[in-house]
């Protein structure tokens, strides 16, 4: 960055020296008719243009490298923050975070362009002002007074431009988030016939973004106009005064040419300062959004303990209250399989959030292997407790790459997960999110991935909602076989899965209302029968 600023400043300094050199050329060679000064002036111009062209080429290359590197680093930093296993409290949707990680990171890094061109333009103005002072002191003083006034006039619009740019970027992020949500839920929207309402909502958001963009662009255009007008007035004033001085014999013809050339040249760095001001305003707005993500506190804290006690219950909840849960207790011993039936889906969501260590806002105590979840290192927690929800995330690549684990028992585990039909297609390429697969195939592939990871505690949420009854029975048998001797917690209403559990807990209104074997509950509990038996 420093090297780029020095080289681009050298370029602007040599550009400012061009009209001065031409003025000297007129006075020393053309006016006198001497050949030797003419040769020296030509050689000087040749060297000057060679220097300024190479300084610009090398300097611009350094600035672009610095900007691209900084953009890359900012994107990595945002990605690390968003993917932090502790979570983040930004309150932003995926589309908004995507917009910040791409567009805002790029615009924030452009502050380096604003700084570099601003320094180069300032160098040009300093060289031009000094040259004018050497020609005529009043002219130089007039430029030294006039240029700051022009710059201040340009800067007066910067706060308005920053506000409107920030509003425009927020509107773009919201529209991007809405588009991401609509694309992800397109099948569902079509299924319920809501695609027209969704399109109308997106159209309204897009029009709001368009209006915000037009306001920001209009302000930028006004700033450009003010910059050009003030620069032109300054040029006219300097050229007029210099012409009068030449007519009165106060300065020579060569000096007049140098002064007019410098006055005309000054319009370029003044305009560049206006451009730098626009870029700075845009970068400041993006930097604020970027900083809001980077400074957001994590959802949960991470302790320092990295080892759990295998002699203690692998999962223990004592008097846990969170959202709809009320004084919930659970002891999950090592090697035990426990099913949980929640009459209210909100109870299931609350329990999964607590067990997965994705909140610190609950009351009561949660222990993993005898260590409270707040004291356990977040990586140790993730290595001990694997939470697999029914909505599986898949990525571009192949089926094999989405499984993440190469294992001699790969085919056996896939069969146990009810995904035997996908064994011959492991090297099949997948589109984004596995859109070419059915919902049941995606769900079974996610279950196979979880089983292959073989965590000490596997927590499953409705792993069979998208499969038929026959596959569900095979999946239940396979899960019991693969997880034999390991600890498993399954939140489901599937009778096939509940029938394979060592015991079943039933939650209603956030508390455990009954507990027992599936067969016993199915025979004696009418509410259980209604919720489970099909």
Please estimate the helix content: 55-70%
Provide the spatial order of strands within the biggest beta sheet: 6-9-10-3-11-12
Beta-strand content: 5-15%
Number of E-state strands: 12
Terminus-to-terminus distance: 69 Å
Q: Count of helical segments?
A: 18
Backbone shape: elongated
The largest β sheet comes out as: 6 strands, mixed
* Chain-averaged pLDDT: 83
**H/E element string?**
HHHHHHHHHEEEHEEHEEHHEHEHEHEEHH
- Class inferred from helices and paired strands: alpha/beta
- Spans where pLDDT lies below 50 across 5 or more residues: none
The Cα radius of gyration reads 35 Å
Structure description:
Strands 6-9-10-3-11-12 form a 6-stranded mixed beta sheet. Strands 2-1-4-5 form a 4-stranded antiparallel beta sheet. The chain has 18 helices and 12 strands. By secondary structure, it is of the alpha/beta class. The chain has helices at 2-30, 35-82, 94-109, 111-135, 137-155, 158-184, 186-191, 195-247, 253-294, 345-355, 378-384, 399-403, 410-416, 439-453, 469-482, 495-498, 518-524, 526-532, and strands spanning 315-322, 325-332, 337-342, 363-368, 371-372, 385-388, 397-398, 429-430, 457-461, 487-491, 503-508, 511-516. Helix 1 (2-30) packs antiparallel against helix 9, helix 3 (94-109) packs antiparallel against helix 9 and helix 6 packs across helix 9. The longest helix has 53 residues, at 195-247. Strand 11 and strand 12 (511-516) form a beta hairpin. The mean pLDDT is 83. Residues 2-282 form the ABC transmembrane type-1 domain.
């Amino acid at each position: 960055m420093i090297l780029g600023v020095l080289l681009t400043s050298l370029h602007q300094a040599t550009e400012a020296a061009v009209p001065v050199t031409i003025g000297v050329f007129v006075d020393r060679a053309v006016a006198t008719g001497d050949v030797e000064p003419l040769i020296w002036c030509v050689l000087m111009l040749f060297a000057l243009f060679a220097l300024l062209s190479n300084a610009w080429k090398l300097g611009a290359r350094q600035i672009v490298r610095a900007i691209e590197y900084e953009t890359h680093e900012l994107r990595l930093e945002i990605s690390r923050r968003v993917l932090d296993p502790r979570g983040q409290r930004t309150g932003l949707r995926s589309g908004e975070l995507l917009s910040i990680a791409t567009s805002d990171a790029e615009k924030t890094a452009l502050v380096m362009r604003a700084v570099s061109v601003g320094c180069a333009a300032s160098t040009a103005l300093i060289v031009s002002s000094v040259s004018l002072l050497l020609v005529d002191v009043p002219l130089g003083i007039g430029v030294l007074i006039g240029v700051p006034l022009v710059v201040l006039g340009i800067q007066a619009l910067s706060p308005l431009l920053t506000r409107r740019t920030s509003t425009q970027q927020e509107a773009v992020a919201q529209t991007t988030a809405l588009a991401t949500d609509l694309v992800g839920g397109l099948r569902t929207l079509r299924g319920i016939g809501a695609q027209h309402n969704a399109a109308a909502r997106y159209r309204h958001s897009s029009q709001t973004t368009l209006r915000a963009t037009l306001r920001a662009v209009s302000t930028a255009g006004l700033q450009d106009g003010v910059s050009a007008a003030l620069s032109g007035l300054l040029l006219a004033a300097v050229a007029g005064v210099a012409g009068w001085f030449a007519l009165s014999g106060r300065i020579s013809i060569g000096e007049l040419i140098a002064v007019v050339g410098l006055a005309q040249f000054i319009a370029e760095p003044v305009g560049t300062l206006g451009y730098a001001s626009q870029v700075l305003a845009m970068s400041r707005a993006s930097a604020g959004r970027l900083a809001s993500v980077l400074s957001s506190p994590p959802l949960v804290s991470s302790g320092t303990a990295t080892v759990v006690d295998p002699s203690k219950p692998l999962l223990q909840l004592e008097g846990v209250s969170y959202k709809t849960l009320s004084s919930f207790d659970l002891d999950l011993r090592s090697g035990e399989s426990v099913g949980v039936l929640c009459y209210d889906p909100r109870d299931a969501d609350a329990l999964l959030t607590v067990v997965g260590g994705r909140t610190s806002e609950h009351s009561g105590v949660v222990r993993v292997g005898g260590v409270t979840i707040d004291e356990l290192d977040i990586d140790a927690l993730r290595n001990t407790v694997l939470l697999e929800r029914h909505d599986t995330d898949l990525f571009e690549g192949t089926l094999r790459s989405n499984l993440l684990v190469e294992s001699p028992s790969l085919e056996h585990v896939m069969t146990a997960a009810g995904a035997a039909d996908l064994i011959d297609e492991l090297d099949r390429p997948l589109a984004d999110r596995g859109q070419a697969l059915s919902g049941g195939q995606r769900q079974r592939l996610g279950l196979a991935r979880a089983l292959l990871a073989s965590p000490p505690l596997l927590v499953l949420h409705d792993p069979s909602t998208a499969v038929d009854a026959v596959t569900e029975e095979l999946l239940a048998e396979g899960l019991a076989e693969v997880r034999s001797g390991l600890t498993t917690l399954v939140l489901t209403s599937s009778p096939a899965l509940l029938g394979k559990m060592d015991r079943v807990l039933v939650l209603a209104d956030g508390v455990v209302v009954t507990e027992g074997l599936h067969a016993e509950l199915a025979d004696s509990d009418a509410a259980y029968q209604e919720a489970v038996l099909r």
